[in-house]
Amino acid sequence: MQFNPEITNVLRDLLPWAGELFKLLTQLGSELFYVPLALVGYWAYRKRESVIVVFVLLTSIVTNYWLKVAIHSPRPPQSYWYPGASEANYGMPSGHAQNSTMLFGWLAARVKTWWAVILAVTLTLLIGVSRVYLGLHFVEDVLVGWAVGFGLLLLSIRIERPLQALLSKYDTNALYGVLFVIGLLMTVVGTYVLLPLPPDDNFGHIGGLVMGVAVAFPLERRYVNFTTEATAKWRLVLRVVLGLALVIVVMIGLSPLLPTADVWLRATRYFIVALIGGFVWPLIFSKAKL
Q1: Are residues 56 and 8 in the same domain?
Q2: What is the pTM (predicted TM-score) of this model?
Q3: What average pLDDT does the chain have?
Q4: Which domain range does residue 274 map to?
């Protein structure tokens, strides 16, 4: 049973000035924030931890997609959507609420300070509220998103060390090969088995990212193996600025050729972006001594 979507109107009446602010805050729960964050950390801050962040996010994103498809819950009517706000796929659980809980909670657990916990909780709450304010989710979508994200967070913290110990016994390249096959199989299942496809969405971007990461990281480790330590700050800044510009240009430039509507073309676009961010750009900036 869905909560009354009029809660959206109640929030807007209480905070009539907050529409544009919530449109901005809600992006902190989207790939527009996560992808640059992971790339900046990977290229210029803490490489190993950023790789873990990528897998933390992918775990949450993949889980969220399949839960949406399984639950099949619609979003609020478009008449409730805030001007300029739109979304695809089903509604429950809220991906923004789930992924922000997982990411910010995991980062707070690593930092281990009260201010990090307070910041993580605050951002997660604001992102969740923004989804209801913008009319893109029912309240229960957000509540379930928070619950799933928190559950995944506790699980990831609990199994991180045992999982690392287990995986260390196996060849890294073989593990990435398995990850690639998993990404490929999930894309096939999401395209040809779980029909009909979600409204205005498909698994292409997630499958492409998973397969791209599975190829990019082992290639970087073998042929580049760059470091962020003992590197001049101005070089790190150039890595980030030029690298983000390259990723944005490629992402936008390939959109007409590899459109979102086609699952495999979309997967190819995101595969290329992941390959560039994880391997090609590190190879370039290492050769350029950045």
Answers
A1: yes
A2: 0.86
A3: 86
A4: 173-290
